């Protein structure tokens, strides 16, 4: 996949094509949600054509407007609508699409890997806004790499917005994720305003439990009767993912309308589990339902993994795969 396509595809995924601030429905019991809409709407309104504004001030001899935060950080648990709000910010920013970029933290690190650091800086420094979804705080190397990249972009005038997750076990303990974020991005912290968004996971709010797995025969029969379906044995799919760079998982999903998996089993090693997380994100972005046999999705990661350094990713993948399994059912 050519490098210029990687940059051009940094837009909100299909699931978030139509989201806007207007169709985000704040929970009346969680005032932080409505406050986030208000702050982000104002942030977007301030991201017009800065060059025109500078010229207007020069001709009128006006003093420049006071500098506000160049970044917004959305801190909250799973399923409170952070990605909806981040994509809404992208849509509401009055700049052409080629001057706005939207991607996950993993996609951004993949971009740097594909282009090289300096070329990535060059490719993004002309943007008005960069939105980073699911900022990962569990890999020091990648975090320092992206922090350095963001520093270069912020110095070039790019405005930044990011989301991350508070672990379910940490909800109610104050600004856990925000504190981690500000510490990890080091010198960038002063550029960000942190917004806490409280609430329950909308993917599971008031809904029945995840459907039980189907049989191999049911999965096979439904796959052959479904247009645009893929049908794989789980082990064979994991083997294939090991031979495809994660930056291409989005392209791997193109033209697939439903995924059918046989013999889903617990994942044995960390590298395989992390590849599965990326695939789950790409399927969720594209609203591709997943019908499976074997163990339920909340049993594919071991307790050791769920308590380890990458636990944020695994909890997110379980939440999203469960939602896709419910769609398939």
TrEMBL record:
InterPro entries: ATPase_AFG1-like (IPR005654), P-loop_NTPase (IPR027417). SUPFAM superfamilies: P-loop containing nucleoside triphosphate hydrolases. It comes from the Bacteria. Keywords: ATP-binding, Nucleotide-binding. The keyword ATP-binding applies. GO terms for cellular component: cytoplasm. One of its GO terms (molecular function) is ATP binding. This is AFG1-family ATPase. It comes from Streptantibioticus cattleyicolor (strain ATCC 35852 / DSM 46488 / JCM 4925 / NBRC 14057 / NRRL 8057) (Streptomyces cattleya).
């Amino acid at each position: 996949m050519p490098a210029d396509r990687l940059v051009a595809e940094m837009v909100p995924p299909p699931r978030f094509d139509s989201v806007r601030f207007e169709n985000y429905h704040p929970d009346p019991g969680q005032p932080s949600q409505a406050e986030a809409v208000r702050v982000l709407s104002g942030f977007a309104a301030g991201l017009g054509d800065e060059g025109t504004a500078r010229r207007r001030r020069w001709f009128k001899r006006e003093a420049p407007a006071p500098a506000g935060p160049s970044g917004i950080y959305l801190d909250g648990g799973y399923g409170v609508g952070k990605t909806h709000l981040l994509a809404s910010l992208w849509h509401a920013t009055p700049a052409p699409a080629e001057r706005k970029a939207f991607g996950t933290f993993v996609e951004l690190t993949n971009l740097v890997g594909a282009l090289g650091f300096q070329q990535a800086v060059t490719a993004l420094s002309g943007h008005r806004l960069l939105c980073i979804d699911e900022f990962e705080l569990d890999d020091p190397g990648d975090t320092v790499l992206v922090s350095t990249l963001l520093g270069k972009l912020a110095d070039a005038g790019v405005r930044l917005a990011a989301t991350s997750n508070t672990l379910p076990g940490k909800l109610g303990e104050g600004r856990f994720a925000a504190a981690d974020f500000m510490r990890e991005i080091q010198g960038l912290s002063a550029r960000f305003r942190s917004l806490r968004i409280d609430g329950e996971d909308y993917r599971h709010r008031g809904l029945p439990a995840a459907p039980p797995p189907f049989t191999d025969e049911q999965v096979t029969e439904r796959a052959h009767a479904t247009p645009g379906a893929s049908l794989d044995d789980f082990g064979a799919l994991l083997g294939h993912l090991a031979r495809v760079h994660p930056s291409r998982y989005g392209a791997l999903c193109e033209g697939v309308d439903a995924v059918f998996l046989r013999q889903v089993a617990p994942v044995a090693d960390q590298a395989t589990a992390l590849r599965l997380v990326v695939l789950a994100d790409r399927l969720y972005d594209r609203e591709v339902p997943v019908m499976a046999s074997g163990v339920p999705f909340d049993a594919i990661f071991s307790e050791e993994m769920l308590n380890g350094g990458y636990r944020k990713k695994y909890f997110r993948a379980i939440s999203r795969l469960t939602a896709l399994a419910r769609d398939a059912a």
